[in-house]
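fyi for ur records
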Amino acid sequence: MAGTNPISAVLIIVITIFLPPVGVWMIAGCGADLFVNICLTILGYFPGHIHAFYLEYVYFERRSQGQMGNLAAKRAPGVYSDNVNSGGRTTYGTMPT
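which gave:
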C-alpha cells in the first residue's frame, strides 16, 4: 500500500472486522457492491468479510498503482463500483494524467 495513508487503511480494516458493510460503504459508496455485501453478511458473517476485504484489497492496490502511474485497463472481477475500480481516482470524463 505504498503512497496511501496507513492510518486510514487500518481504520477501514478495523471497521470492516466488526461491520463489513460499513467498510464497503466507506470505499465503494452506496451501490451494488454495498447491496451484495449486505446480502452476503446476512447469509453468513464470513462471506461478507471475504467480499469486503476483497474490495478493500482492489481499492488500495489500484490506488497505489495509480499513484505510481500504472492505471489498470480492465475492471476487477466482481467489483461494480467505479470508485473501487479506479482506486478513488476521479477523472470526470477526461483521460487521467
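The mean pLDDT is 82. thats all i got for now
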